[in-house]
Specification:
CATH class of the largest domain: Alpha Beta
Number of domains: 2
Radius of gyration: 29 Å
CATH superfamily of the largest domain: Bira Bifunctional Protein, Domain 2
Strand content: 25-35%
CATH architecture of the largest domain: 2-Layer Sandwich
Helix content: 25-40%
Oligomer: single chain
Mean pLDDT: 92
Shape: elongated
CATH topology of the largest domain: BirA Bifunctional Protein, domain 2
Distance between the termini: 22 Å
Largest sheet: 9 strands, mixed
Length: about 500
């Protein structure tokens, strides 16, 4: 805490000195009496005992943050909150003693302080289940005042920067992250139940790959080696298939040095899995089953509400080829334009504004992003992608320009990506070398040639299907949040110095 001219801050600092003078440790290392109940458990235990005339009194040791306090002469009331909710306590001077009541509870405690309370659960005259305090202990002195029912912390940026205050003041925010945790737990439950093994792969990589993105770079001083924060788990997970692990998945952090938007953060959580002897059709069925399972775990059914719309995650989902989707929503058949220049001219003739430097694959992808994606509200698989933007996917039989790939969309957002994975090491090398020529050195689509991955493939990789999805975007969906920052505890923000 920095020096302050705020009189309320100075008052709290003065209370620290008075506590020390009275021999009261404002930050004791432990509770004098171990906590026996949460607030919710204490209330439940009392209500059960209340229904049984022969039940013994419910004695509890509680701990939490003091949110309110009312002094009424020699009796005081307060509400204490922990992770399970709130419970009222009431304190009698003739029970806890003069020092505990007058000096501690009445004078030196502030809203926001953590306290422990031991006592008997009762129901007050107003009907509220409460703890009649026998003993009070200060656990941690708060030197900053709590926001007054969210007044003083309305600014969205401040909420993100001071997430701890956001969580303190807004129970709804806490519930978002509880739901997110339950969602991830349900994902693991599904995959573990299907025989997948959860693994961990390197975050620092000598060669980045597995996605089209610009990496963050760093340097290992002792090894004198440039390293990259991973942009994907893909190439390492597929090495494990070579080694005989048939079903693997990873949930972890990826890092992409790209713009920030309502659905992008440079550091994000990704789920990827790879399954031997599966193709992209098998992966589609598994994605449907997994998200229906998650929805049932979180809501009891497969219909969820997102931004005022009802979305049904029950299988089967709609399947549409990329070509048909772009014809439907952008009125262009890109197969009629074999070169980038021809496709760009056709797009301009219809009022589109393509980037002049884009190759054909990027032009097709821009049609998908700008015209198709916003219209795909109900769960939809878009399949069959051009090879130029899919260097790790297997070609579609009879069509060397197209690969077995899908992306899935929900609520107008691209949610994930999957392939029938390329397992021919010679074809993979040719693709990587072709991508080096197709894209400029600074283009984020340019895949580096990973010699060790090609060596691994040369030992034989079983046919397989792979899948990746953003966990943060799934959290947006299941928590009904339109901005990715609302489902990240600590989203990346510009520095305050730059903002000023």
């Amino acid at each position: 805490m920095t020096e302050t001219n705020n009189p309320y801050d100075r008052m709290r600092l003065a209370k620290l000195e008075e506590l020390a003078s009275a021999g009261i440790d404002p930050y004791p290392p432990r509770l004098d009496q171990p906590r026996t109940h949460t607030a919710g458990q204490a209330i439940d235990a009392f209500e059960q005992a209340e229904a049984d005339p022969a039940a013994a009194p419910v004695l509890v040791n509680l701990a939490g943050r003091m949110l309110s306090r009312r002094i009424m002469g020699k009796v005081g009331f307060a509400h204490v909150e922990d992770g399970s909710g709130q419970v009222q306590i009431f304190v009698r001077k003739d029970v806890v003693g003069d020092e505990a009541y007058d000096l501690l509870f009445k004078k030196l405690l502030d809203l926001g302080d953590f306290i422990a309370v031991s006592g008997r659960m009762v129901r007050t005259k107003t009907g509220e289940v409460s703890c009649e305090a026998q003993r009070i202990q200060l656990l941690a002195k708060s030197l900053e005042p709590m926001p007054d029912k969210w007044h003083g912390l309305k600014d969205v940026e401040t909420r993100y920067r001071r997430r701890y205050v956001d969580l303190m003041a807004n129970p709804e925010v806490r519930e978002v992250f509880i739901t997110r945790a339950r969602m991830v737990q349900a994902i693991r439950e599904y995959l573990d139940g299907q025989g997948f093994i959860e693994v961990e792969t390197p975050v620092l990589q000598p060669i980045y790959g597995g996605a089209a993105a610009r990496p963050f770079t760093t340097y290992h001083n002792q090894l004198k080696q440039d390293l990259y924060l991973r942009i994907s788990f893909e190439l390492y997970l597929k090495r494990l298939l070579v080694g005989g692990m048939e079903r693997v998945y990873e949930i972890g952090r990826d890092f992409r040095n790209e713009g920030v938007s309502f659905k992008h953060n440079p550091e994000f959580t990704q789920l990827e899995w790879y399954e031997a002897y599966a193709d992209y059709n098998d992966v589609m069925a598994r994605v449907e089953a997994m998200l229906a399972h998650v929805a049932r775990r979180l809501t009891g059914g497969t219909v969820i509400s997102y931004q005022g719309r009802q979305i049904d995650l029950a299988p089967p989902w709609r399947r549409v080829t990329l070509r048909d989707a772009i014809i439907e929503y952008a009125d262009i058949d890109y197969t009629q334009y074999p070169s980038a220049a021809e496709l760009a001219n056709a797009m301009r003739a219809m009022g589109h504004r393509p980037e002049s430097t884009s190759n054909r694959g990027k032009l097709i992808d821009s049609l998908l992003s700008n015209y198709v994606e916003p219209n795909l509200v109900q769960p939809t698989f878009v399949t069959e992608y051009p090879i130029e933007i899919s260097p790790l996917a297997k070609k579609k039989a009879g069509d060397p320009t197209t690969v077995e790939r899908f992306e899935y969309f929900i609520a107008g957002m691209e949610m994930g990506n999957a392939f029938t994975e390329l397992n021919d090491p010679l074809d993979q090398r040719a693709r990587m070398e072709w991508m080096q020529q197709l894209y400029g050195a600074e283009d984020e689509e340019r895949h580096p040639v990973d010699e060790d991955y090609l060596l691994a493939m040369s030992y034989g990789m079983p046919p397989n299907g792979g899948f990746g999805t953003g966990v943060d975007r799934l959290a947006m969906l299941f928590c009904d949040k339109a901005i990715i920052r609302d489902v990240l505890l600590f989203p990346h923000l510009r520095s305050l110095e730059r903002e000023e």
